[in-house]
Amino acid sequence: MKQIINKLRNRIDACPKGLFVLFYTEMWELFGRFGITSLLVLYLTKTLQMSDAKAFAIFSAFLALIYVTPIIGGALCDRVLGNRHAIILGALIMVLGNLLLIIPNIMMVYLGLAIIIVGSGFFLPSIAPLVGFLYEGDERGRDAGFTIYYLGKNIGALIAPILCGIVAVNFGYHYAFILSAAGMISGIVVFVKGQKYLSEHVKKPTIKKIKLRGFSIASLPLIYIGAILTVPLVLLVMEYNVDAYLLIFTGLIVFVSLMVIAFKRTRAERRHIFAILALMIFVIIFEGFLNQGGTTLNLFIERIVNRHFFGFQLPPTFFFALDPIFMLSVGPFLAGLWLFLSKRKLEPSVPAKFTIALFLLSLGFLVFVFAAFHAIMRSQASPLYIVLAYFIFPIAELCIVPISLSMVTRLAPKNLNAMMVGVWMLSSAAASFLTGQVSKIGQVRFELTDVTALSHAAYIYRHAFLVSAMTLAIAAIVLFIARHFIKRLML
Predict the structure, then answer these.
(1) Alpha carbon distances (Å) from 137 to 140, 261, 268, 412, 483
(2) DSSP code at position 348
(3) pTM over 0.85
(4) For labelling, which of 36, 252, 265, 374 has a CA lying 20 to 30 Å from the CA of 67?
């Protein structure tokens, strides 16, 4: 183990300096996003007095749409904006959205979330390809490099629930949202200052002229106008809860577009696109159940778990932060393990890593099943169950999320890196919609006023967690059977 740690330390020292600029920038984007997702359901149910079902619907729509807009944003990044312009523009838009959440009014919440969604469309697909560009010519170190990048940015996921949770409890939710905005501004400053480490990899804007009825208009102003007009559209989709129809429509357009692209490309590129689409299915299942950390699991912890610790009551967001704490603890060992196995040609294939992730997440939900069973018997569950489950979850996540990003940037057709990252993020959008549907199994429709009500709620949660564990186990078995076929497509 000491040898692995030393090799990992040497690998980190050898990392391109641009990698640290990128993960610091995305670390603060993730800080803002986790600050919102860790508080949103609690904010809606407690401050704005919404029902569980309505809060779940808004949460899942927000997560779904935040991964739909990158398809368009990624295409604009590849063709017009370039990575640097897209990242800065997206981050500034998201800062504005965070600041609007300060106002405790449901329409302002919708507007703030809609603006964040539009900003994410530019930001999210534009930064991951830069990590891939840093590792061109170093395919053996690519998965480890993406794992280091993923670990670094997840520092934001670690500190967001803790800091934002403490600020929200002691000073109010609006101060937590201000803190999120301030963190993102810090990320913008470092990205701008760190351009000397990225200049040779950053695609510059391509200023094009578009002719409309005899008038010649620059493409950049049209993009800005389009972003502004997209905000009310996204707001209406969230307010009227029609994200499912938008996902279906977007998915069909993307699938047809990918088929057209695939059959215009080489045979190898076509097989790679098919491999990406096949693995997207399993990512949707994985993230769809994992995202319950912000819905069912969050409310289970608040309502059922004993959160008293030496006379203090821990906020639910404290447990939300356990995932990134363990991720940062275990992640370096996992990155070192991939390097160790890679040098000996024993590293598991991408489909094999995905299979491990699905099995581990199933095991984590099984721990929650036992926690709920404990609560049925004693009205409250021990927090040790949550600690154990949130130790398993990040190991599973590290076996699929950074690996999938590495895989997409490697297999993406030439000159379509940002677009393919945007397409890949559509799996997260579909997963977020799945989260909303799965969360309905665990919604509680009655007041928790006595021991009997708490026990009944724990029974509902146990059933929801058991469904999650069984579905994930079945998906893992299916992928285990299909892994050799998918591996051949990736050659």
Answers:
(1) 9, 25, 19, 15, 26
(2) P
(3) no
(4) 265
